[in-house]
């Protein structure tokens, strides 16, 4: 295990990303466990931080951790040192605390245990997926591979490929396929599949291009009922298991 870590993580310059990734997941799981214990009002858990009766949300602590980890990381010159790894871990923990209350920041009200608050969990899952792809060595739009090819093919060819791949990912996102579009930034074929398939009902692409009652709209609705709804139910069940059920479903 030690040899693998040294070869695949440390020697490839991904030590800080690894520490960020691990700390991010650990902090998210910890804070979700904490808020669920507080929600159940168990006696053995410390509870909310309420100095003077004022509830301090954990996004505040997350911002402090991000500032400390971010500035600390900028101050460290050796990317492979223990201090660099520690700063990345602090930054990762802070990011998890902030994104866990992303919906609260977006709506500027406490929607943590509502359906609106489920957005925070979705953002965390997306972040974990993207960081995992980066940790595996993938780069957005194939930047590393194109960088090597660019020495022989020239800048205009590289720019053309980048714009084309980015365009496919944007089309997939406009069609309401968030996961396909984001992962497509790393794996071009995924973006291509998302771009050529039908848009999801209610997406910007569908509202703009699918006339009400048209054949494409009917096909999109049928596909949504047949394929998307079961996936959403499964994703909701996973989210409930990890993060707890929203109040509206209690």
Count of distinct strands: 0
Major sheet summary line: none
Rg calculated over all Cα atoms: 21 Å
Task: Please report the number of helical segments.
Answer: 12
Beta-strand fraction estimate: under 5%
What class do helices, strands and sheet pairing give? Answer: mainly alpha
Residues in helix, %: over 70%
What is the 3D form? globular
SSE run? HHHHHHHHHHHH
Mean pLDDT, all residues? 86
Distance between the termini: 43 Å
Contiguous low-pLDDT stretches (5 residues minimum) are: none
Description:
The protein is mainly alpha-helical. It has a domain at 1-137. It has twelve helices and no strands. The chain has helices at 2-10, 15-40, 58-75, 82-99, 102-107, 118-135, 143-153, 155-174, 178-184, 188-196, 204-209, 215-243. Helix 7 runs antiparallel to helix 8 (155-174) and helix 8 packs antiparallel against helix 9 (178-184). It is globular.
List keywords for this structure.
250 residues, 12 helices, 0% strand
In short:
Keywords: Membrane, Transmembrane, Transmembrane helix. This protein is mainly α and 250 residues long. The protein is built from twelve helices and no strands.
Fold topology:
Layout: H1 2-10, H2 15-40, H3 58-75, H4 82-99, H5 102-107, H6 118-135, H7 143-153, H8 155-174, H9 178-184, H10 188-196, H11 204-209, H12 215-243
Helix pairs in contact: 2-4, 2-6, 3-4, 7-8, 8-9, 8-10, 9-10
């Amino acid at each position: 295990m030690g040899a693998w870590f040294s070869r695949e993580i440390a020697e490839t310059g991904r030590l800080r990303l690894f520490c960020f990734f691990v700390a991010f997941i650990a902090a998210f799981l910890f804070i979700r466990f904490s808020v669920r214990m507080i929600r159940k009002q168990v006696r053995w858990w410390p509870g909310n931080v309420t100095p003077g009766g004022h509830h301090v949300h954990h996004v505040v602590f997350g911002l402090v951790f991000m500032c400390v980890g971010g500035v600390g990381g900028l101050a460290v010159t050796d990317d492979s040192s223990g201090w660099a790894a520690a700063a990345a871990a602090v930054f990762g923990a802070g990011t998890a605390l902030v994104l866990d209350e992303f919906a609260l920041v977006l709506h500027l009200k406490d929607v943590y245990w509502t359906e609106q608050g489920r957005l925070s969990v979705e953002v965390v899952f997306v972040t974990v997926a993207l960081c995992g792809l980066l940790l595996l060595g993938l780069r957005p739009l194939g930047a590393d591979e194109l960088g090597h090819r660019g020495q022989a093919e020239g800048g205009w060819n590289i720019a053309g490929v980048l714009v084309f791949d980015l365009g496919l990912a944007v089309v997939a996102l406009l069609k309401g396929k968030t996961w396909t579009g984001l992962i497509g930034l790393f794996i071009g074929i995924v973006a291509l599949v998302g771009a050529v398939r039908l848009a999801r009902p209610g997406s910007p692409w569908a509202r703009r291009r699918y006339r009400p009652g048209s054949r494409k709209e009917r096909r999109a609705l049928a596909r949504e009922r047949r394929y998307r709804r079961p996936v959403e139910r499964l994703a909701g069940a996973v989210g409930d298991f990890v993060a707890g059920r929203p109040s509206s479903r209690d």
